[in-house]
Amino acid sequence: MDKRFPIEDQIEMLGAMIRGRVITPHHPDYDSVRMVALAQFDRRPAAIIRVANAADIAAVLNFAQATDLPVAIRSGGHSTGGFGVADGALVIDVRDLNRIDIDVTGQTAWAGAGMTAGEVTHAVEQHGLIVGFGDSASVGIAGLTLGGGIGYLARKHGLTIDSLLAVEIVTATGDILVADEHHHADLFWALRGGGGNFGVVTRFKYRLQPLPSFTGGPLVFPPTPEVIAGFAALADAAPNELTAIAMVLPLPPIPAIPAEAHGQLAFVAMMAYAGDPADAQRALAPFRALATPLADMIQTGPYSSLYMLDPPPEMRAMVAVRSGFTSRFGLDEARALVTAAQSCTAPMSMSQIRVLGGASSTIGNEATAFAHRDSRFMVTFLAMYGGGPEVVAAQERWVAEALSSVVPAGNGTYVNFLGADEAAAGEAAYPSATRERLARIKHRYDPENLFRLNTNIAPAA
Ligand SMILES: Cc1cc2nc3c(=O)[nH]c(=O)nc-3n(C[C@H](O)[C@H](O)[C@H](O)COP(=O)(O)OP(=O)(O)OC[C@H]3O[C@@H](n4cnc5c(N)ncnc54)[C@H](O)[C@@H]3O)c2cc1C
After folding, report:
1. Where are the beta strands (DSSP E) in 315-357?
2. How far is the CA of 191 from the centre of ligand 1 (A)?
3. What is the DSSP letter of 305?
4. Is 455 a domain residue?
5. What is this structure's pTM?
6. Which atom of ligand 1 is nearest to the CA of 451?
7. What is the DSSP letter of 180?
8. Of 3, 248, 305, 410, whose CB has the highest number of CB atoms within 10 Å?
């Protein structure tokens, strides 16, 4: 690139060198394309490059190194640390890498890194197959998979990374590699939990599992500590076919909920049973007996029907989030969770328990860069709100205090649910041995730390 030209002109020239599109602040699409899921990350990158293939990515990385412009990587745009967009950066936007190739007989799929969880789920469930992502259809498979992936099949089939067979990635040098158990095995280990530190992923190869029948949906209870603690004990002891994500939240005004309960706090347990419908009813019976449900919307149907409804872009909110792992969730923790939920001043909040164990815990902590497999629960607090800096501070304080009232400090945090102010350091996301191994692999694949707008692993020899 000819440095005699202003940087804006150099960026325009980059557009002529690639198959994809370069979107600068003058472009009519700039504002909609730079928007991410969390409203507080209202940032103005130097350009967003909608790459069309791996060669485009290599060209952008080369350009970034020649111009010293920082690089952000964006897929589904749901980063809780706001890493998918940065002021003054070149955003490598992979959303157009959205092709999926399904091998129905071999039960595998190569999915483009720009696809969302919902898109992949819809594509594979047509064939009676599944791979587990998270609870929301609009989350990108890329960010989710690279952090671990904790969703409704965690107990049956493990984390998303436990179904990952291979990754195609463009490294800082512009090399296109395929990493799997046998090729670049260290890199493959690091990509299963180490986030966007090692290159730009173009596609993921997943193992698909047959899912002939699925039963799931919300079971809604009054938010009493006894119900919540009872739920946690039952879900922890349930067959692996059953995974649950449950939360105290203010009930939305939907017809299935009695009108007098709208806006009131309730305990909503999202139940997911991957198996025979009659077995599902047997496994669900003790949960239904915890108390008289306010609503029972569990049904047998497609897995994708369980995804949360995503708000339209104009209703995007600011989000404060904190999570922590724990192996203890009894009556004391349930009481503290309810007290915390009651004290939240945001219009929408979730005080959430994810029940882990099952297949996700049969793999060793050292087997992947996600190293929290011996924790039986993950507790997460989210506040969704709008307003100025004082509101931001109040909600950030609420999530932090709520978490510390339920989960002991030092048990570790999920890298994909780090709050904005803790995300850059991410100390709690990796135990020291994991972080040291990640640093050595980072040194091999990205010694100059080109990929640093993330929960950063500093390269170390
Ligand atoms: C509403 C909501 C619900 C969620 N639910 C769940 C859940 O149920 N389970 C769960 O595990 N997580 C969940 N998450 C967390 C989610 O997994 C992370 O926020 C994840 O980073 C989002 O990925 P993305 O691709 O959408 O985000 P982006 O903001 O596009 O990307 C986040 C980061 O991932 C890395 N990255 C993205 N694409 C690439 C790529 N192609 N190559 C290399 N690095 C890349 C980059 O560092 C990037 O900055 C949820 C988040 C939200 C906001």
Report:
1. 318-326, 348-355
2. 13
3. G
4. no
5. 0.97
6. 47
7. E
8. 248
Contact 369, 429 (CB under 8 A): no
Cβ atoms 363, 306 nearer than 8 A = no
Identify whether the C-beta of residue 114 lies closer than 8 Å to the C-beta of residue 96. Answer: yes
User: CATH number for the domain including 441?
Assistant: 3.30.465.10
Distances (CA, A) of 111 to 191, 194, 216, 416: 16, 19, 25, 20
Please give the distance, rounded to the nearest whole angstrom, from the Cα atom of residue 238 to the centre of ligand 1: 29
> Are 204 and 227 in the same domain?
no
Q: At what angle do helices 331-342 and 389-406 cross, to 10 degrees?
A: 170
The residue range of the domain holding 387 is 214-417
Q: What is the CA radius of gyration of the chain?
A: 22
| For ligand 1, atom 9: residue with the closest CA | 134
Number of domains in the chain: 3
Structure tokens at 133: 């992502």
Burial class (CB in 10 A: 0-12, 13-18, 19+), 304: middle
Q: Is residue 425 part of a domain?
A: no
Residue 77 Cβ < 6 Å to ligand 1:
yes
CB-based contact 188:181 (threshold 8 Å): yes
Q: Where are the beta strands (DSSP E) in 222-264?
A: 242-250
One domain, residues 297 and 399: yes
Task: Render pLDDT for 145-154 as a digit per residue (tens, 0 to 9).
Answer: 999 999 999 9
**Cα separations (Å) of 282 from 67, 105, 211, 241, 279?**
62, 32, 19, 12, 5
Q: Ligand 1 pocket: which of 61, 71, 73, 270 to mutate (most atoms <8 Å of CB)? A: 73
Q: Is 416 in the pocket of ligand 1 (CB under 6 A)?
A: yes
Give the separation between CA 152 and CA 348, rounded to whole angstroms. Answer: 22
The percentage of the chain sitting over the pLDDT mark of 70, rounded to a whole number, equals 99
Name the helix (H) or strand (E) containing 202. strand 200-207
Alpha carbon distances (Å) from 71 to 88, 249, 456: 9, 37, 13
* CA neighbor of 436 nearest in space, from 366, 375, 364, 361: 366
**Whose C-alpha lies nearest to ligand 1, atom 7?**
134
Using the mean position of ligand 1's atoms as its centre, give its distance from the Cα of residue 92 in Å. 14
Q: Number of C-alpha atoms within 13 angstroms, CB side, residue 400?
A: 10
Tokens of 411: 């048990």
Residue 2 pLDDT exceeds 70: no
Q: Tell me, yes or no, whether 170 and 261 share the same domain.
A: no
Secondary structure of residue 428 in the 3-state scheme: helix
Q: Quote the ligand 1 centre to 190 CA distance (angstroms).
A: 16
- Is residue 461 situated within a structural domain? no
Q: Are residues 18 and 132 in the same domain?
A: no
- Distance in Å, CA 415 to ligand 1 centroid: 10
pLDDT tens readout for residues 219-254: 999 999 999 999 999 999 999 999 999 999 999 888
